[in-house]
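Sequence, please.
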């Protein structure tokens, strides 16, 4: 599906969003990817997840895990129960550790974390390389790999997309991490 295509409401409901995510993932894996500093291929995958979550008639937000063997796991809230603890998602050995990336939706269309998101991130400490929270035209990457030393201190990168023209001479910035 190209980004230029416009789908009717009926087509949106019938479209296989899970298969679409899987196809974009397969293309991304073939071409290489980077969850800690997403490249254009990885960003296309993130956009597919956002589009599916925003347009598909799911009961809950999509959660995606890519494990250490590059296996994709998608939870749409229907087949699998949500867990507040990432370790519960991994129990049973089906998902290879360390998890390369846990991807979910941010709060209210923004790439941000709620208190329960922080608890889930902390629950995956030592098992998780990175987390990505998606928002409308933005994403937030948290590098959660344990080798940085300080437990529960994460390197964050937020990317925001917008249109810009020559007439725009001032770029407004939102609040930064840490309140700087």
């Amino acid at each position: 599906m190209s980004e230029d295509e416009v789908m009717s409401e009926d087509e949106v409901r019938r479209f296989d969003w899970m298969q679409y995510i899987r196809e974009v993932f397969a293309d991304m894996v073939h071409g290489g990817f980077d969850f800690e500093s997403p490249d254009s291929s990885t960003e296309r995958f993130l956009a597919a997840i956002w589009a599916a979550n925003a347009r598909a008639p799911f009961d809950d937000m999509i959660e995606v895990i890519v494990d250490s063997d590059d296996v994709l796991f998608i939870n749409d809230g229907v087949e699998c129960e949500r867990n507040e603890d990432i370790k519960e998602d991994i129990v049973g050995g089906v998902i290879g550790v360390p998890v390369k990336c846990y991807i979910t939706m941010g709060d209210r269309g923004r790439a941000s974390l709620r208190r329960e998101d922080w608890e889930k991130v902390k629950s995956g400490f030592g098992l998780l390389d990175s987390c990505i929270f998606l928002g409308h035209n933005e994403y937030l990457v948290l590098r959660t790999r344990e080798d940085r030393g300080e437990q529960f201190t994460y390197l964050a990168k937020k990317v925001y997309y917008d249109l810009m023209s020559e007439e725009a001479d001032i770029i407004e910035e939102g609040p930064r991490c840490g309140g700087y």
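Residues 14-161 form a domain with the Cytidine Deaminase; domain 2 fold (CATH 3.40.140).
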